[in-house]
Amino acid sequence: MRKALVHLKKSDPILRSIIERVGPFRMQYGPPEFHSLAEAIVYQQLNGKAAETIFNRFAALAGYPLTPEGILKLSDEQMRGVGLSKQKSSYLRDLAAKTAGGLLDFSQLHELPDEEVIERLTQVKGIGLWTAQMFLMFSLKRANVLPTGDFGVRMAIYKHYLDVQRAKAGKNLALPKKNRKRKIKLPTPAQMEKIATAWAPYRSVACWYLWKSLDATLVSESSSLKRKT
């Protein structure tokens, strides 16, 4: 990790100041297993407390850790009873069925390049690019992932890179008072890729620091897989 931090500090002065303010790198990882991805599906589009409550009920019913067999044995009524929507239940069933049928083999994922892992995971209903990238980062420990669709990373790049540059460019302009409030325009994937070029091959580490930089109290970032900190 020292090598990654030295590289990031040397290659990007903005990121260097963020790293120095946030402190030691403390990303926590989960195992690259079926359970982690099933949990990620449960957590999708829910706030932390609600997701945790539903997940705990679901795991108590299906068994902990979650397994394909434990999920497939449940009825639709049982899954709805713990708070899972019809759509999310179908996603979990599809993940369980594809894993049980051998179409998705978690024991092989660590051997595959990032692009192929994403291709295999996104065959599952409800698993999109973002969830697959989170699995790469927080379960497979891939060091060079840039989730261009992640709101937290986009907001941090806007705040530390784009908005700062815009403010500097316009600081000498005598704008009317009513026009002084700037609109937030989040970066495009192309803009993010350009800024992150200097971070490679440690873009995952850079993203962790960007997530942390948004929290003034340095509590936690908005990642999905159990909100890893």
How does this structure look, described?
- By secondary structure, the protein is mainly alpha-helical.
- The protein has two domains: 2-26 and 147-213, Endonuclease Iii, domain 2, CATH 1.10.1670.40; 34-138, Endonuclease III, domain 1, CATH 1.10.340.30.
- It is built from twelve helices and no strands.
- The protein has helices at 2-11, 13-22, 34-43, 48-62, 68-72, 76-81, 86-100, 114-121, 129-138, 151-170, 189-196, 203-213.
- Helix 10 (151-170) crosses helix 12.
- The longest helix has 20 residues, at 151-170.
- The two termini are 16 Å apart.
**Remind me, CATH topology of the largest domain?**
Endonuclease III, domain 1
**Rg, alpha carbons:** 20 Å
Give a count of the beta strands, DSSP E runs of length 2 or more. Answer: 0
Unreliable spans: 216-224
Q: Give the mean pLDDT.
A: 89
What is the architecture of the largest domain at the second tier of CATH?
A: Orthogonal Bundle
Assembly classification: single chain
Cα separation of the termini: 16 Å
Task: Identify the overall geometry.
Answer: elongated
Number of individual domains: 2
Amount of helix: 55-70%
CATH superfamily of the largest domain: Hypothetical protein, domain 2
Let me know the largest β-sheet. none
CATH hierarchy class name of the largest domain: Mainly Alpha
Structural class: mainly alpha
Proportion of strand residues: under 5%
Order of helices and strands: HHHHHHHHHHHH
